[in-house]
Amino acid sequence: MTDETRIAVPATAKAGTHCDLAGYEALYAQSMENPDGFWRDQIGRLDWVKTPTVMGNWSYDPVDIKWFEDGVLNASTQCLDRHLATRGDQTAIIWEADSPDAPSRTLTYRELHGEVCRMANVLKGMGVTKGDRVTIYMPMIPEAATAMLACARVGAVHSVVFGGFSPDAISGRIQDADCRFVITADAGARGGRPVPLKVNVDKALESCPGVTGVLVVRHDGKPVAMADGRDVWWHEARETVPAHCAPEPMGAEDPLFILYTSGSTGKPKGVLHTTGGYMLWANLTFHYVFDYREGEIHWCTADVGWVTGHSYIVYGPLSQGATTLMFEGIPNYPDVSRFWQVIEKHKVNIFYTAPTALRALMREGEAPVKKHDRSSLRLLGSVGEPINPEAWLWYWRTVGDEKLPIIDTWWQTETGGVLISSLPGAIDMKPGSATKPFFGVCPELVDAEGQFIEGPASGNLVLTRSWPGQMRTVYGDHERFVQTYFSTYKGMYFTGDGARRDEDGYWWITGRVDDVINVSGHRLGTAEIESALVAHPDVAEAAVVAVPHDIKGQGIYAYVTPNMGVEATEDMVKELKFCVREHISPIATPDFIHLTPALPKTRSGKIMRRILRKIAENDTSNLGDISTLADPSVVQALIEGRKNR
Ligand code: 6R9
Given strand 133-137, what is the order of strands in its sheet? Predict the structure, then answer.
């Protein structure tokens, strides 16, 4: 794809837009030249108990980030109370079940407000107080949003754990955040298969003696074990409490949630977001990036277990008074037209999904898309990984009939909301480019030494200014926050991504430059997968690298060295895959496991990952300098082993 391939803002996107090109340029300039003035103009987007007088108060060296620090507000009020007078009877959440035969559900803003207040009261009754951490492990049902908002209402900090994670992964996260409470459901369903959530929680809690209360939502309806004195049924408890609960006034810098994400080293980090800055960022980006229009139905296909679900299923849309659709299922169940069927059924206006889903559906041809009425659609969005131009063009032509704007939104768990994206009514598109920075965002390219690179070029993507939605710390480990994001290049936030800026100043994100693998938009650290592999008693050592994958974007290639005397067998490969599923999740299962008696190492004992990547990609024509290896013959053996796969 050449940079000349430029697709003008479609006429459909210009009509009624909140922001045209001149508007974008003016607001962006204001956000750079007079940030205080810009943010003073924006803070009225939220209902404050006490309006802040201080805007940004931050430094990247030393690292100390605060926004709106003297403001007071409650996040649930933004999403509920302030809509009651004007849109109490409007649908807040539409729920579509895993099975197309199950009835869908809707909740109005008034109903959601009542549910959230009741759950907040139940949580209080269980002993939850301001500042407590609460783990939420839920299927994609409205009660997941209720749970998040109920925590916010009482000032508790939620930590949502994706429903696909294993008991080990849940317990690690509960322990790290020192949670005493869990909200879960009996079971979920995905693609026609039950997901045993309560069973997984019970297993996780065997190693979490600190948990004193578990609130269980009945969804599947099949019997589950309930521990006396610890487990509480939501449908029973909700009958015993009033549907009113005063929101806890929170300082803007009080924590709203923790969300674990993988990095290049160690175990997953608890990314901490605070109340005022995060809420304003979620609200503002939802307004401009999705160019949300009154009355529209917004569907983000992510799970609430990821940041995309936090910001663009729950906090962004609800704070704006939108109707948000929650889908329990998957794109190819019961067949590959499910997405388009749901769009037709609920007359979806905004559709926001991941490139991996588009690539998988693209393979199925046009027919499953074309047979459904998509005339309600106004905007298409993409998130989670770089979108290749082929998938972009398929989205544009087949789904959007060359009429709908596509927003390719680059951001991270750490950033709280979108940082680089086109604005649909303002910025011409280029297939595969995330285009331009959002207001207040200042991206730059640096070389390996941290020197700025000017003009059209490639390099490492850094951000030189803070924005309100930025994470504030790693829960319980501020030093790790500083080390991970601010030590590679002093005085800048390092994203971990590589990028290119073209001659028009458009940004093209090229993917991670650290040891993070992006499998179907899910972030996984190589170190995490390696530690799951070496947990097997017969394993001496493991090294994991990414390989290109047609659908998933990246696949996982694991090199594993068995202990001396252990035979490398297919059974061992199976056991190792099982080990990863048990320790982390099925999404982390390696696509290839390459058993090898040795790994290529430098004389100082460092594994040469560059070489392992090349061998995994079958690109061994130019391995570069291998003279520093302690034993160069290892490389030839690995190449032979790769050939035999
Ligand atoms: C929101 C989310 C963050 C990483 C990020 C980058 C990749 C996300 C992207 C994208 C290219 C896009 N990424 N969106 N790469 N274009 N539009 O996905 O958060 O799970 O923390 O992942 O995902 O590599 O650094 P998270």
Answer: 231-233, 213-217, 181-185, 133-137, 157-160, 255-261, 269-274, 473-474
Tell me the ipTM for this assembly: 1.00
**Ligand 1 atom index nearest CA of 522:** 20
Q: pLDDT by residue (tens digit) across 91-134?
A: 999 999 999 999 999 999 999 999 999 999 999 999 999 999 99
What's the pTM value of the predicted model, to 2 decimals? 0.94
Q: DSSP for 196-249, please give it.
A: -HHHHHHHHHTT-TT--EEEEE-SS-S-----TTTEEEHHHHGGGS-S--PPPP
Given its phi and psi angles, is residue 440 left (phi above 0), alpha (psi -120 to 50 degrees) or beta? left
CA distances to 31, 38, 430, 464 from 26, in Å: 9, 11, 22, 20
CA angle 303, 308, 311 (to 5 degrees): 115
**Confidence band for 2, pLDDT divided at 50, 70 and 90:** low
Who's near 232: CB < 8 A, 6+ residues apart? 122, 126, 213, 214, 215, 216
Element (H, E) at 146: helix 142-154
- What distance lies between CA 577 and its chain's CA centroid? 24
- 3-state SS assignment for residue 298: strand
Q: Answer for the pair 137, 168: CB distance below 8 angstroms, yes or no.
A: no
How far apart are the C-alpha atoms of 421 and 72, rounded to whole Å? 30
CA terminus-to-terminus distance, the chain: 32
Cα–ligand 1 centroid distance for 111 (angstroms): 34
Distance CA 462, CA 477 (A): 22
Largest CA distance in the chain: 74
CA-closest residue to ligand 1 atom 10:
385
Cis before 10? omega within 30: no
- What's the rounded Cα separation, in Å, for the pair 399 and 349? 13
Q: Taking 80 as the threshold, does the pLDDT of residue 4 lie above it?
A: no
pLDDT digits (tens, 9 = 90+) for 353-408: 999 999 999 999 999 999 999 999 999 999 999 999 999 999 999 999 999 999 99
Residue the block writes with tokens 């049902």: 141
Cβ < 6 Å from ligand 1: which residues?
Answer: 261, 306-308, 382-386, 408-413, 434, 495-497, 509, 511-512, 518, 521, 523
- Determine the distance from the C-alpha atom of residue 8 to the mean position of all C-alpha atoms in its chain, rounded to a whole number: 29
Strand 231-233 and strand 213-217: the pairing is parallel
Q: Is 384 annotated as a binding residue?
A: yes
Residue 172's contacts (CB-CB under 8 Å, 6 or more residues apart) are 267, 268
